[in-house]
Every structure is written in C-alpha cells, then in structure tokens.
Design goal:
This protein has 757 residues and is of the alpha/beta class. It is built from 24 helices and 26 strands. The strands form 6 sheets. Strands 10, 11, 12, 15, 16, 17, 24 and 25 form an 8-stranded mixed sheet that branches. A 7-stranded mixed sheet has the order 1-3-2-4-5-6-7, sandwiched between helices. Helix 1 packs across helix 2, helix 3 crosses helix 5 and helix 15 packs antiparallel against helix 16. The chain is globular and about 85 Å long. The relative contact order is 0.09.
C-alpha cells in the first residue's frame, strides 16, 4: 500500500482550503508527532502539515530513506498535491532545516511559490560536505544521549533501543551523505531561529543561513534548548509564522506564555525577561507599556527606566516601540513635540523629539543622536539581572548603561532641564533615538535615504570620546570629542583536512590547524600608525598626564622618524597606559576574533573548521587590501582567508567600499558646537584638556559625514579600564555620580547655544 508522507490533521478537503499551510520537518530520528503540541496554538488561518517518513510512526515497517534527494523529491511532490491555493511556509527543526531547504528548492524550481522558509536550531547546507561515511549503532546511541533526544535510562532498554535507533541511524546517514555545496541558493524569505540555551547549534552557526538565500533573511532567537519547538512552542510558532503577507494575526490569547512574553521573546529577542520597574522610576500603563513617573531631569532615574526596557538587538533590529512610547510620554509631558517613525519591521521604530529654535535666522538643527537598541545579554553570566537597572556601590549596572542608554539619559535630562527653565536656542535641538545602530537594515542610513529632508542637521552629537582620569583613578585628566570613526572588515578563516572516525585521529586535523593559525594571528601586530586625529589627541595626553614615563613615551612616538622607533615608542605608550586596549586601538589596525565553528557529530573528526574575525582600520593609516595580503602571507597555505562582503559583493568591491568609508573626511572642529563643548568641559572639569580625537569603534556618523555634516562623539562621563572592558560585555555599568557630572557637561554645551533672554 502506498502510504502518504504528509498528513494534515483534521483536514478533509485540502483542495478547497485557504490561508497558510505550515509544513513541519522533524529533527533527527523524529517524525510529525514531535509537533503535536503546536495544534491549537496556530494562527486562525493556518493548517499544520506533518511528515511521517518511511521507517517511523505509522510507517515503521517501511525501509528508511537515507538520500536527501529522494527525501526532498517525495515531500515536494506531496506538498504540490496538498497545497491547494494556500501560501506555503516550510519549517525545519535541526536536521529538518536541511530537508525543508532542499524541498523548498524543488518547489521553487517547479514553479510553486514558497512564502517563507524557517530553519530552527539547524546548521546551514554549507556545513555539510557529503563525506561523513558510515554511521554505526554506537554513533546513533551517542547522538541520542548527547542531544537529549531521550533519557539515558531508556537507551539501556534493548527493546526501546531497537525502536529508537534505526530512524536515528537513517537520519544521520542522510546527513553524512549530504553535500550542501551542490545546492542552489533560492530566492525565498528565510527566517533562521536559534535557541538561547542550545549547546549544539549556537547563534554563530545559525547566522550562516544568511548566505543561503537571495531573498530577505531574518535572524531571531527564542528561549529554550535544541528542542525549543517542544519546550517553547509559542515562541517558535511566533518566530516562524508572524508577519506573513496577507495572514491574519496570531491568536495571542491562546499562545502558551501569553502575548507579552511571546512578544518579548520573539520580537524583542529577550534572553532574560525584563523585571518589573520600581514605581519611583517607571510604571506599567494600561496598554502594557511603561510610563516614566520620575523627574525627567534626573539622568539616573531616566537611565534606570531605559535599561529596564529590554531592547536587545539580535542582528535584525530590536523591538523599540515601547521604549519610544516611554520617551514620547516624557517629552510630551514637558510640552515638546515628538514623532515615532516606523520601519518595515514591526515594532522597530525611530523616535524624535524637537525643541524649536527662535529667531528668523536660525541655524540648521543640532541633532542629539542616541540609539535605543542594545546588544543581547546572553552567553556570559552576569552577577546582576542585565535589565533590572540595579545600583550597587555607586555603579549603575545593566545592558546599555554604557552603550548607550546612559548617554541617552544625559541628553534627555540636560535638554529637558533647559526646557523647564524656559530656554530658547539659536537652532532646533532634535533628540533622535535610532533603532538599528548595533545591527539591522533600518538604521540611520536607511532613514536618511527613505526620509530625505526630514532631518536637516547642521551638526550631530552621538556616542564617541571618553573622559579619562589620572592614574589615581579620581582626578579627571583629558576629555575627547571624536571627529571620525574606525571602520572594520569581516574576514573568515577555513582550514581543511579530511573527516574520519574519532577512533582514528591524525596529525593535521582541521580543528588543530585552525587553532594554530588563530594563535599566530593573535600574536600579529600592525605597525603603529597614528592618523592626524590620534596624533592631536596623544599630543594633548602628553601634556595632560602626570606620569613622566608615559609623557616621554608619547613624545618619542610622535617625534619618531622611523617605523622602528615609532613601533617601539608606541608599544611603550600602550604598556604604560591605564586604558591600554583603548589607546592601542587608536594607534593601529587591530584584529578582534568573534567566532569559531567546527564539527557536527560526536564521533566524527570534522574535515573543516572555520573562524571569523574583524580587522578595524584607522582612516588615513593602513590600506585594507595590503593588510589582507599581509595576513595571507603570514598564514601561508595552512588556511584559506576570505573577505566577507555584502551579498553578491566581490572581495575587490568590499575592499573598495571600505576604502570609500575610510576616505570620508574628519569632522572639522572650527565650529560653534565644538567650541561650546570645549567651554562646557572647562566649566565642569576645570583644568582638564578638551581635545578632538579618533574614535576606536564605528557609530551611525558615517551617513552624515558623507553629506559634509559635522558629527562629534562623546561619552560625557569619566570611565576607567574595567568599565571600558565591560562595554558589550558582562556586568556593563557606569558610575552614578559620573553620569550626573556628564549630564552637567551636556547641559553646559547646550547652554552655549541658548539665545539671549
């Protein structure tokens, strides 16, 4: 009897059905029943199609399929028969992601449209090379125990093992023989979903799905482990099915965790749920948002309330609308006009508040540019809740406290203090909270392109320069306002050997070779090449420091006539600095290693290993192409080094684009805004040198600088080495009193732009 692969529970007439057909591909060793708890949780117009391959479930007596082509061909044929007029969404979990991908390719090739492809906790096709070899019972047993597919005690039951292991062996054999490099790259909307507690398929692995579609790719996270589709079905369903064109909204009331929790997990990508705010700082509204109830001129209370808004950005933009609505309430209460501008991603918005200037000959606006999104607070363990805004020992802890909700709070508090005083300015002052600064397609560049003329900035102040103390850690030494950013290039390493059974290890394994190459690159140092901005900063630092040895090394570096002298003196500067990582980055090209990946099965020595790292360049210093060539010469033929550009971009195009960014001129410091900042520093930090500077990172400034709009960067509060090291890291924090003093600096800067009363 010819038993079908697909079934749609409860459906009798598929040819007349409408809405969405969600076809679910199970993980290794499983079949359609693994999605049983999805029924009753789906959007109203969505039907669930479950796959039962030969060799399991009701087809347990059939011969398992171990060939990816045969598997995908069979499923694609049945989908075509069942589809009717419905939109198709293919959802694959773990190994099922590959099966969904191959099935998608076949459907598209036959002219059947696929509305969306979803890969949940799965490796991308490029991770498979078809050289896995035979799979043994021991391999299957190790996989079942290692991934939590079943309890170890059940594996000791021989009868249970005889039922469980054959489909596991078949699926592992299917994966071992699969060569993803032969697969075409389809044009389909793709959602790649990783689970925050998944030890087998981490975020860096899921991110590689970006290269496996020519359409839009969205990266999302959900709470849970490798089998999050069972542990947290509501979040996975929402990640896969929300926002389909023409679909009716999900029935949020029936989603297991409730509407707010699901939105926080999927849209805001919260790894740690936000805690309930203290009533003194913020309170929930009837609509489920948060309103600020404290003093809007108090930067500490503002920063606490901002931190408690979890605006984590996993890579495709954050859920910033509640944050924007809180800001809107704050500014409206002060009588300031506001606007929330949506982006194509639901819940991801820009926020604007504008204080109008006075007089007929007003200058172009000053934009205080902050960003509402923050990097996720996952992976490394915090000693505090990263979204609680706790204050301990005079420090405010929380994700974004430094980058950059503390600065946002200083901007807002200082501006509203002027508004409360009835001040008028010689230009409009615009506070802009960008939603996609950390990652995502809808940031400042998108906004300026899509809304030309909406923000005619005369100057911009955003994140950037630092206020540093003397060696005593208490006495302010130097304040900097950055006038240009470094730019970075993503590079990928790959080592190759051959895959084999772990019982036969050999010299030259890919993972070992990757480690050796990474160690060599980690020891590499670019030459010390301070550009004009860095030279100005370090000349001022030589006058500001009370450490004679540091001052001497700084002058020797700046006066050096040969590269050897400059390198020797520059290394001494870094060694003697109280913030060596910061000053090193201001002096040379740097390499930062972000990820490494290899292996896909516990009894296979993998044949390839990869790592990614970023090379960051100073404008006016090293040429990116020359550095790439130098690194390739250094590692020789032990690894392949490739430049990772934008989709469809060649290496030369990526390098030329970077050179274009690096050629954008510095923002000039012969402006009234720069002078107002210098005056403000003299008032709040008497005796401290205030200088132009090169920023060691990248901000949203480039699109403005490309339009010849001066952009200046400041973190107005004093910082130390520990605080700088925790930026984007664990236990991120700022000093409470430093935040208050930094806010006073912003207030005094704006005071320099007030008109006479």
């Amino acid at each position: 009897m010819n038993v079908p692969w697909l079934s749609v529970p409860g459906e009798t007439r598929p040819e007349s059905a409408a809405g969405t057909l969600a076809v679910c591909f199970a993980p290794t060793g499983a079949h359609g029943s693994t999605f049983a708890n999805w029924r009753g949780r789906l959007p109203e117009d969505t039907a669930l199609a479950l796959i039962t391959p030969p060799g399991r479930g009701t087809r347990v007596d059939a011969e398992p399929v171990t060939d990816m082509t045969a598997y995908a061909d069979a499923v694609a044929a049945e989908i075509r028969a069942l589809r009717g007029g419905r939109r198709l969404v293919l959802i694959g979990v773990s190994l099922g992601a590959l099966l969904a991908y191959e099935t998608c390719c076949r459907l598209l090739d036959s002219g059947v449209p696929v509305a969306r492809l979803c890969a949940v906790a799965g490796q991308c096709p490029g991770d498979f090379h078809g050289d896995g070899g035979d799979v043994t019972v021991e391999d299957a047993r190790a996989f079942a125990a290692g991934t939590g597919l079943t309890d170890p005690e059940l594996l000791a039951d021989l009868e249970f093992e005889e039922v469980l292991l054959p489909p596991v062996i078949a699926d592992l054999q299917l994966a071992a023989g699969y060569d993803g490099s032969r697969s075409p790259v389809p044009h389909v909307e793709l959602r790649a979903v990783w689970a925050t507690e998944d030890p087998h398929v981490p975020e860096v692995t899921v991110r590689r799905w970006i290269d496996w579609t020519r359409g839009e790719c969205t990266l999302l996270s959900v709470e849970g482990g490798h089998y999050a589709h069972q542990e947290n079905p509501a979040a996975v369903i929402s990640a896969c099915l929300d926002g389909l064109p023409g679909a009716r909204p999900s029935r949020r009331s029936v989603l297991g965790a409730g509407a707010t929790a699901v939105a926080g997990t999927v849209l805001g990508l919260a790894a740690v749920p936000a805690t309930t705010p203290r009533a003194s700082a913020a309170a929930p509204t009837a609509a489920g948002g948060i309103s600020f109830e404290g003093d809007p001129t108090d930067p500490v209370g503002l920063a606490v309330a901002m931190i408690r808004q979890n605006t984590s950005n996993p890579g495709d933009g954050a859920h910033t609308q509640p944050f924007a609505q809180m800001l809107q309430g704050i500014f409206r209460a002060a009588g300031v006009g506001t606007e929330i501008v949506p982006t194509p991603k639901e819940g991801n918005v820009h926020f604007f508040a504008r204080v109008p200037g006075s007089g007929a000959a007003r200058k172009k606006p000053l934009v205080l540019l902050g960003h509402s999104d923050v990097v996720p607070a996952i992976g490394d363990k915090w000693t505090t809740d990263p979204f609680a805004g706790d204050i301990k020992d005079g420090k405010l802890y929380g994700r974004g406290s430094l980058d950059m909700k503390g600065v946002n709070a200083a901007f807002v508090a200082a501006l509203l203090r002027h508004v409360r005083e009835g001040a008028t300015f010689d230009r409009d002052i615009v506070f802009w909270s960008d939603c996609d600064e950390e990652q995502g397609p809808y940031g400042v560049r998108w906004f300026l392109t899509e809304h030309p003329g909406k923000v005619e900035a005369g100057a911009v102040i955003t994140e950037g320069g630092w206020v540093l103390n003397q060696r005593d850690g208490r006495t302010p030494m130097i304040a900097s306002l950055t006038c240009n950013d470094k730019r970075s290039l993503l590079l990928r390493l790959e080592t190759s050997s051959y895959a084999t059974h772990t019982s036969k290890p050999f010299t030259g394994q890919a993972v070992i070779r990757l480690g050796e190459v990474l160690d060599q690159l980690g020891q590499w140092r670019a030459h010390i090449r301070p550009n004009a901005l860095s030279r100005q900063y370090f000349a001022e630092l030589a006058e500001a420091t009370t450490e004679p040895s540091l001052a001497e090394a700084l002058r020797e570096m700046l006066d050096a006539r040969t590269e050897q002298q400059r390198d020797r003196a520059g290394e001494a500067v870094v060694r003697l600095s109280e913030t060596p990582e910061l000053h090193n980055a201001m002096l040379r090209t740097t390499l930062a290693f972000t990820s490494a990946q290899s292996g896909y099965y516990p009894s296979i020595v993998p044949g390839t290993a990869t790592a990614e790292f970023r090379a960051a360049f100073l404008p006016g210093a090293d040429d990116p192409g020359r550095i790439v060539a130098e690194l390739r010469s250094l590692i020789g033929n032990r690894a392949a080094l490739t430049v990772v550009g934008s989709p469809g971009e060649s290496e030369q195009q990526a390098l030329d684009r970077l050179r274009g960014y690096l050629a954008v001129p510095d923002s000039g410091y012969d402006t009234d805004v720069f002078r107002a900042w210098q005056t403000a520093v003299r008032r709040t930090h008497p005796g401290v040198r205030a200088t132009a500077c090169q920023f060691e990172a990248v901000t949203s400034a480039v699109p403005f600088r490309e339009q010849n709009v001066p952009v200046y960067g400041m973190y107005p509060f004093t910082v130390n080495r520990d605080m700088l090291k925790r930026m984007h890291g664990t236990d991120e924090h700022i000093g409470v009193e430093a935040l208050r003093q930094g806010t006073e600096t912003v207030y005094q800067l704006l005071a320099g732009l007030r008109t006479e009363s």
